[in-house]
């Protein structure tokens, strides 16, 4: 990407494509139309407030399985490269990197990234519907364990379900206003509001770059698109940015 010398603040949006190569299933069917949606559940059955109200055991078991599964996975080269950029960019340029992820795994953090905003929540958190406290949580929730803060049996996955408002939208739009470069990595461009970030960034004057396996639905909004696996594209781009 030419003319990178003036880039200081970078906002990076990551989606399922970044974690897919670590063996984390995506919600949507693969390009080949193969099965996806985690163990063949439909979104409506496990990832909406209505589903939880209707059959909490099904939903809790589903997320208990996901929570256990992600703890067996390892960050891939894309996570590690973004972790390096996150750690080294400020020292090199005085600018900031914010990673906004739609992913609910902790692979960015385990890849070394420090400033990660999980707009759709985190598998390794539990949220108490009684007292609103959030707790780091690595075990199951199916047995209705008490909340460590208020002792009520009201813990649910700290996941933004379909129909719920993503977290920290004000922080994200604030970062987009300050961004010189917006990069979208491994996201389909199908889920709003995240799918609209490229348009916001572009209208605010940022350069825009897409790194993806295939063109996303919002691909036309990007100044540049590079196609390929995240584990190859991301390290190459980070080397380019850090001049290494």
Give the helices and strands, then pairings.
Elements: E1 10-14, H1 16-20, H2 37-40, H3 43-46, H4 49-54, H5 56-70, H6 77-93, E2 97-101, H7 107-110, E3 116-118, E4 121-128, E5 134-136, E6 155-159, H8 169-178, E7 181-185, H9 197-203, E8 207-212, E9 224-227, H10 230-242
Parallel strand pairs: 1-2, 1-7, 2-3, 7-8, 8-9
Antiparallel strand pairs: 4-5, 4-6
Helix pairs in contact: 6-10
Written description of the protein model:
The chain is α/β, with parallel strands linked by helices and 244 residues long. It folds into two domains: 1-24 and 76-120 and 166-244, TPP-binding domain (Rossmann fold, 3-Layer(aba) Sandwich); 27-72 and 121-159, SIR2/SIRT2 'Small Domain' (2-Layer Sandwich). 35% of the residues lie in helices and 18% in strands. The protein is built from ten helices and nine strands. A six-stranded parallel beta sheet has the order 3-2-1-7-8-9, sandwiched between helices. Strand 7 (181-185), helix 9 (197-203) and strand 8 form a beta-alpha-beta unit. Helix 6 (77-93) packs parallel to helix 10 (230-242). It is globular. The relative contact order is 0.19. Mean pLDDT is 89; it is low at 28-37.
Largest sheet: 6 strands, parallel
Report the β-strand fraction as a percent range.
Answer: 15-25%
Catalogue the unreliable spans: 28-37
Tally of separate domains = 2
CATH topology of the largest domain: Rossmann fold
Classified by CATH, the class of the largest domain is Alpha Beta
What is the average per-residue confidence, as pLDDT, rounded to a whole number? 89
CATH superfamily of the largest domain: TPP-binding domain
Helicity level, as a percent range?
A: 25-40%
The protein's oligomeric status is single chain
CATH architectural type of the largest domain: 3-Layer(aba) Sandwich
What distance separates the N and C termini? 15 Å
**How large is the radius of gyration?**
18 Å
- Biggest sheet strand order reads 3-2-1-7-8-9
Estimated structural class: alpha/beta
Total number of strands? 9
